[in-house]
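FAQ

Q: What does a record look like?
A: Structure on top, sequence underneath. For example:
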């Protein structure tokens, strides 16, 4: 995974989400992704399954399983991402399964979002992913409010054009999916390579 090796040491991690197959996971990790996300809700177009998760994890690629309701169990994934309204109780329950937790905060006032960030972090979420599907890079109010807070990630309609803006706020994680696709559920190798080439160009500047 030479691409991933070349990105070591950077402050911000990158998660390529919406992975539906092993080939795309290997390609993304090779290009520079620090982790890949597999959506476990079968009602979502870009969903995967447990077999895919286990096969990807067996290759040493960190996997995040993305859940729209509380998972009943886990397997070999590194993290579970709680992508539904939740609080400290759900974070603690997920942690008790022996995995890291990524919480998603994507609604309410800015004050509400900051409050939920604090609650989830105090309960043990390693990363709180702040999402605005209309385009997080355009939400300067959110970026400024969360800038510098530990364990903050940004998500929402992210593309390579947003990288310089987002990295200026030094998030722990940037999450993206659709901008790297050839079609829903299938990544475009050229787009993925170009994205991580831009990451490597910008990383020394931030």
């Amino acid at each position: 995974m030479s691409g991933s090796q070349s990105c070591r040491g950077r402050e911000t991690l990158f998660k390529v989400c919406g992975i539906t197959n092993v080939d795309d996971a290997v390609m993304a990790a090779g290009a520079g992704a620090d982790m890949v996300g597999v959506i476990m809700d079968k009602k979502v177009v870009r969903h995967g399954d447990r077999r895919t998760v286990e096969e990807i994890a067996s290759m040493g690629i960190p996997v995040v399983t993305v859940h729209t309701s509380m998972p009943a169990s886990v397997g070999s994934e590194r993290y579970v991402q709680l992508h539904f309204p939740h609080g400290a109780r759900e974070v603690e329950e997920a942690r008790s399964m022996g995995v890291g937790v990524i919480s998603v905060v994507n609604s309410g006032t800015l004050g509400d979002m900051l409050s939920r960030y604090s609650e989830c972090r105090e309960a043990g979420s390693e990363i709180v992913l702040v999402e605005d599907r209309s385009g997080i890079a355009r939400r300067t109010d959110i970026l400024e409010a969360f800038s510098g807070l530990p364990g903050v990630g940004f998500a929402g309609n992210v593309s390579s054009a947003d990288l310089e803006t987002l990295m200026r706020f030094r998030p722990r994680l940037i999450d993206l999916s659709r901008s790297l696709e050839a079609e829903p559920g299938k990544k475009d190798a050229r787009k993925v390579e170009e994205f991580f080439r831009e990451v490597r160009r910008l990383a020394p500047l931030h």
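Q: Is there anything notable about this one?
A: Residues 2-205 form a domain with the TIM Barrel fold (CATH 3.20.20.70).
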